[in-house]
Structure formats: C-alpha cells, structure tokens
C-alpha cells in the first residue's frame, strides 16, 4: 500500500486505510500486544509524515479538503494511541519515542511543537492501556528519559548556559572543585520530560502499580529526578511536575523530604509572579502549586521530623493566597482553602494564619458559592478548636457568627446558623453550659421569623444545644423558664418562638416531665385564644404538644390532667366545633394525629370502657365521644380530603367504634339537643403535607 499510494492525494487514502486496518485488528485482538517492531516503525513514520510532512501541508489547502473524504480529517493522533496500546512495550516504546524526539530536535515552530505534544499525550494514553506492559519495563523507560533530559531543563547557571527551548552547551565547567560534564544540546527537551512524568502519573491513575515495597523501590530513583523537573523555567513542565509531586507525596519514599522542600520553593516562585493568573495556563499553574504544597503539609505532618519545612515559604504563600483571595476564580479559592486547611491542621504558628482565619470566616458568610461557605465553616471550626486563642479572641470569633445571624441574605444567615451549630456540637461541655443563653436566644429568634431553610437550620442548632444539657440541671430549669416566658408573651412571634423551642426541648428530652406538663397546659390555654386569629401559631402550638406527648419522657402526658384542656379543644362540643374541623387542612391533620396519640395512650378498647380519668372516656367528659364520632365523619365528608387525613380519621373511627360496640351508651347520638355539625371544606388539604408532618411548625410558614 505504501508503495502504491505514495503520490499526491493518494497519501491521504493511505493513512486513512492504514488507520482503518489498525483499528479493526485492534478491536479483534484488544487483549494482547500484536504489533511487532517493523510495523511500529513503519506506522510511526507514516503518521508523523501525515501530521507534520507534505500530507499535512496538502490538507491545509482548500482543494484537498473538498476532494476526498480521506483528506478532511487526520487519523494520526488516533493511530498513535492504537500503536502504543497494541505494541510490545519493551521494543515499541523506544521506537516511538526516538521518532518523536528526532522531530522535536528539528522543530523550530511552535505549531510543530504543539502537534508533537499532542502526539505524546495520546501515546501516554495508549501506553497506560497497553495490556501486556510490565511495570518494571515502564519504570526503566521513564527513568531513562528523565535521566537524559531533566538536566537539559534545570535552571542552574553554574552548570549549564541556557540557549532557550531547553538547549544546553557542550562545554565542561567547574563546580565545587569537581569537573561536571555538561549535557549535550537537546532542543525542546522539556516536552520529553513532560511526556515521562505524564506517563508515570497516568500509570498510577490507571492502577497499573500499587504501593508495594517492590514498586516503591523502583519508584525511588524516579522521584529523585523530580526536583530537577521543578527547578525549570518552563511553566508547562513545572505544572506537570507539581501534579506528579502532589500525587506521589503520600507514598513512603526516602526522597520525600527533598521533594517537599523543592515543592515549597517552586510554589513561592510561581505564585509570586505578577500577572500569572491572567491566563488559563497561569491559573492552572497557580492551583497546582497550592495543591502540591497542600499535599506536602498534609502528608508530612504525620511524621515527627525535626526539620522545619520553611515557615518563611509558608508565610509567603499564605500572604499571597490571602491578598488575592477575593479576586480568585472558584477553583483557585478552593485550592487556597485546602492549603490554609493544611497549614491549620499542621498548627503552624504564624500571624498570617490568624489573618487567614478571619478571611475564611468572612467568606463563610458572604461567598456566593455554597461550596466556599461550607468549606469556610468547617475550616473556621478547625481553627477555633486547634489554635491557641485567648478568651477575648474566642468570644470575638463566636460573636462574629452570632452577629451575622441577622445577615441580609438568607444564604449567609443559614451559614451563620450552621457555624453556631458547629460551635455547639464541637466545643467543650463547660463552654456550652457557661454560654448556652448567649447561644440559645439568637438561634431561637429564627425559629419562626425567617425563610424555610434558615428555620430548619435554626431548629437543628437549637436541638443540638438543648441535647447537650442535662434535663435536671440548673441550665435546663433556666431553659424551661425562658420557654414559659415566651409562650406567655402577648407577642404572637414570641409565642411561636416559645412553642418551637418547646418542640426542640421535647425532641431531645431536655426538660423533666413535670416541666413539660406545665408547659403544655400553658400552651393549651394560649390555643383557646388564637382559634380564629393565626392558623400558623395554632399549628406551631399543636406541633409542640405532639412532640411532647410522643417523646420518651412526655409519653405519659397523653392521658394526664395537664393535657385535659388539649383534648377538649381538639374534640370540641355541641356549642363549638373543635380543632378537628378547623378550616385549614394542616390543623385538621395534626389534631387528628394528636387524638390518635391520646387513644393510643388509653390502651386497648377494653381499657376504654372502664372510663379512665383524664381521657375523653372519663365521666367528666360525657358527650365528647359522640362529638368526636360526628366530627370524624364530617372530616371524611369534606370536599377536599387528603390521603393522610383520611387514613388517620379512619384509624380513630375504628378505635372509637370498637369502644362504642363494647359500651353503646358512650356513642348514643339520639339525645335531645344533639346536632350534627356541617361539613366544612379544608383549606390546602394536600398542599405541603409531607412538610407538615415531619418538620417543625416554622417550616409551614406561607402555605395558605
């Protein structure tokens, strides 16, 4: 084919056809290395000519792109990936590398260099996927490339005199009294070093070798060449070397200390460059520098080295990261936060760390990105827990988040609430007991008067705070007093705050049963005055009562004297309908659930006919059972009936019908004066019921 198709546009047909043949054979024999050295050499020359020679020049002509379909696209890059994947690595890798190296040495234009860089990149992909490649062979190949070409890229005026593009001179020079042989001139040597490092990186990504003792022993001499790759003037090579250092820093290698110091030195040199991040490549290099330094600090802190990892360099990096944080891109901010986290976890004692903590705390509230806010909160907690702080400075940091509970944007308020929740969960018990009022009051203010997410976060924070208090402690009695004052307040918002705090306290059993009983009695009295005023306040109160009677410590209150008024209000009487027929569907549903909890507290129907005290069946509550039966039937006749309300109403009816069957006089509906209340449609019977059942009352704000 090569002999026949060697002129004009036939060359396009040649490369197109050869690629088709290689691809077909490769798909059939994908599990083995089937290409010998002669085929590798022939194919490399052919496709290099297609990409760089006369074939490429002809493709650039307008006539060639319209004459043949074979000339419209290049198959050279795909072909190199197939060749390197299907070849015998020990034989084929030197052939492919030598062919590319020869073209690089002759390359004088950036276009040719870019093409060869792409070819080598595709070769990396192919070699990493080569099924029969032995990792020992790959390590030897990578080491030979680095050993030969890393000296061509190092910046060392005492050893070599650079000529640009990775060139060196051939003369011998003296250094430290010893004669050092300079490396021969190699143009674009940095591209070859990049190729070797990318291959090493990709082999680890693909899992071609593990961290076994044998692999680490072979990797050690390669890592010793890495500092030379970092000390270079080529940004692309520096970027690749930093990524490689970041990848292998966690491995137990003897050369880690030397690599670590070189990484810090290189990072300072890179990030200090003015205007570096004005391009995408410079931005990537900046991020790689910070991430590599993060790996250095994160991994080496596990050891007890006596050496100081250049606090001056860490100080410089922190200063640059802080000064440019507000103008950085999202990726750069994430890299900066990771670096600051590594410094804080290492507990480096520098003034810049405290400045960084202030910056991170501010961004935890004000940042537009939820990722930055979440990472900022976690990092602020780590700083407050790990760094030496005076009582005054600690209070300033906590007060910063307390103050920002009133931040103008809800996302910032939610972040502040989550930060306070972090303080509550992670700070020592002594601090929580001392400052619980300072923490509880501002959090409770957001239980009712905020948006949905902030109310949910406030409830979680308050629940966490109350969960850290002993129910019989002095602090718990203070909490009970605060809730009592809020519920008794003439302000509707304060009453809702009080019932929200009561629900949270009941959920974590932060108050004793006696205090809970007194509070639900107080809540029931306030309920009697808000029936037609504010359904949200009524729902909040009923929700708090439900939390109390379903909690472990408050379960006996379901059939107690303290809750007697609750059942009268729910069930109603002949003169006045109860909460079971409230116009709002959510009130009907929670009232029906509360009735179910009460009936469950009574026990089996046989227990109900004994007419136990403090229940709807007691002699003092004659007539309530009849009203409940009528009310439940009216619920089922409503025009808008939700599935959950229907299920609960049927459960209640089944229980009461079993009781009436055993004691018919309880359900007598023929007495004089008895009237069946009219069925009223429920507002929004289905809307938002999932939220109504499992969330605090504040979450239902705005559903009318």
Write up what this structure looks like.
With 704 residues, the protein is mainly alpha-helical. The chain has 32 helices and two strands. It has a two-stranded antiparallel ribbon with strand order 1-2. A hairpin with a 2-residue loop joins strand 1 and strand 2 (178-180). Helix 12 (235-248) packs parallel to helix 14 (280-300) and helix 30 (624-637) packs antiparallel against helix 31.
| Rg measurement, Å | 38 Å
Supply the helix-strand structural class.
Answer: mainly alpha
Task: Kindly report the average pLDDT value.
Answer: 81
**pLDDT < 50 runs, ≥5 residues:** 61-67, 157-184, 303-307, 671-681, 686-704
Tell the overall outline: elongated
Count up the helices: 32
**Can you summarize the main beta sheet?**
2 strands, antiparallel
With strands numbered from the N-terminus, the spatial order across the biggest sheet is 1-2
Give the N-terminus to C-terminus distance in angstroms.
80 Å
The share of residues in helices is: 55-70%
Share in β-strands: under 5%
Number of strands: 2
